Amino acid sequence: MEFATADLIDDFETELQSCETQFRQYGSQPSFAGPIATVRSFRDNALVKKLLNTPGEGRVLVVDGGGSLASALMGDLIAASAVEHGWAGVVINGVVRDVSTLRTLKLGIKALGSNPLKSAKAGAGEVDVPVTFGGVEFRPGAWLYSDEDGIVVADRQLPLR
């Protein structure tokens, strides 16, 4: 699937939300898109791990970690599981770890940064609820498009050029 978020904005501006958060790019896929699944969890990655161990079917997991930079919500093992299970990408409003390995995986990954500290594993949080950051509401089932210019979200799958 080839697209440019700038072209999508030009063609569908009234239908799109553009995320203001400035993410860093990880993973070997700088462009990725798919239907959204969500997790809201603060400094606990048990739900992220659980969800990325299920069939991804080309979806994008959006994780609202509250913008915390204190501990990683995804590392190399969880990301490798996402690849194995067919996820298109992961967007984390928080941090990752194992960056050198993440860059080799065939997965779109955006996060605020990195921190080697592990997160808790208690399973605290919520799955498949709307999450909001960067001026965008990410709703399960909406479509996320991400490239090097940023992230846009539409209520539907957009026809691409």
Question: What would you say this structure looks like, in words?
Answer:
By secondary structure, the chain is α/β, with parallel strands linked by helices. 17% of the residues lie in helices and 35% in strands. The strands form two sheets. Strands 1, 2, 3, 4, 5, 6, 7, 8, 11 and 12 form a ten-stranded mixed β-sheet that branches. A two-stranded antiparallel sheet has the order 9-10. Strand 3, helix 2 and strand 4 (60-64) form a beta-alpha-beta unit. It is globular and about 40 Å long.
Radius of gyration: 14 Å
How many beta-strand elements? 12
Largest sheet: 10 strands, mixed
Overall pLDDT metric: 97
Write the H/E string, N to C. HEEEHEEHEHEEEEEE
Structural class: alpha/beta
Helicity range: 10-25%
Total helices: the number is 4
Low-confidence stretches: none
- What is the molecular shape? globular
Q: Which range does the strand content fall in?
A: 25-35%
What is the straight-line distance between the termini? 10 Å
